[in-house]
């Protein structure tokens, strides 16, 4: 198998719901990160064999193969195809896996992976507004469970014995770490400015709530169960954003005079209990570490998507990873979760963090609707 590398990784800032990016069409927002890849690397976009794009709610603005229309919005040659992937919240992480698999196998040479979601314009659940979501037989198999992720998060909190105060403490930590990262300039090099018509450029992640404390979060009303622990403050934020990564063989990167950021080491995807739903990152992490031939102590940073606070907390309890290496820049509770873009956003954040701090190995994993999960290990090359 051919050595495959990520040459560049860029993202927009993550906009809050009805915030600075809410006027942007998903194709236009995607086109901006694609064009930024071209400008940063100086490549001729005509060498790109395919664009693999993650998007979850593929209706309205995000319908009709948004990956293809993102290419056209970028002004790239019409000869470049595009396809759209939906593996729920892991869609753009799966897009990266597909891109790597195509390059590693020799089927393609240069592929762009990434994703988009503008949840301000295409609301969460919009794709489930007609028909019978999930299907009668799947529903019957699980006794009519609604496949509601908030209820699943409540079940995880109960199973692992987490307290409301513990969940809120973790969530306040996310905001504090994200604010510290933003203030230190940790995100600046990875973010491309987006200037909606007639508006100010969007350059910083909008979801961070400075001064968040466990005490303040303690006053929020549970969202999914009257006596529950999950609420808006310990859940990921509804957000807008896009991100893109340029993937090719190490040999091709050298031929083009490009310096690679990271080597793709291993990827894995697993299925888990679709009722608990959000525990998939635990077996996915075990699987990807076996494939990579690494112990968990050899990994210097972990990005575990903060869909809800119990998700990374349960992952940490089961894996025994170093808590200080988990989501060191904050996570989706503070920075937002633009669904189809989140996998690529997390990978972009992680790779830049690895470069800035000389961290050799990073592991990213995402919980996903339906009980699946992706996990990916990359190695720093700069």
Automatic annotation (TrEMBL):
Flavoprotein is among the record's keywords: no
Domain Thiolase N-terminal: 5-250
Naturally occurring in which organism (per UniProt): Mycolicibacterium komossense
Positions of the Thiolase C-terminal domain: 259-379
Protein keywords: Acyltransferase, Transferase
InterPro entries xref list: Thiolase, Thiolase-like, Thiolase_C, Thiolase_CS, Thiolase_N
Protein name: Thiolase family protein
Family in the record: Belongs to the thiolase-like superfamily. Thiolase family.
